[in-house]
Design goal:
Layout: H1 3-6, H2 8-16, H3 21-31, H4 35-44, H5 52-64, H6 68-85
Helix pairs in contact: 2-3, 2-5, 3-4, 3-6
Length: about 100
Amino acid sequence: MDADEVAEVPLRNTADALGHWWNALGLLRNLYASEDSFWAVAEAYEPEATFAGQYTERVRKVRNEQRLVACTAGPTNYELHIARFMGSSPLDPQGGRAAD
C-alpha cells in the first residue's frame, strides 16, 4: 500500500474527527518508512478551511509533546490482535501459529 495514496483520509480524520483522531495519525505513521517522511506529509496537508486551525493545533501538539509513539500504539495493538485472531504473527514471517 502506498502511504501517499491513502494519506488524505487519516489526515482529514485528524482535522475533523471529534474523537480518536490520534489513531488516524498513528495509523498513517505506521505506513511510512521514517518519521521524517510522515511529518513532511502531515505538515504539508491542507485541510478544509473550517478545520485548518484544529488540524494545525493537533499536529503541533503531537509533534511538540513527542506523542507520536503513543498515537501508534492503538493501531499497532489492533494489528497484533487481528494477526493473533487470524492465526499468524508479525513475528512469524512464515505465517501460521508460532510454536508454543
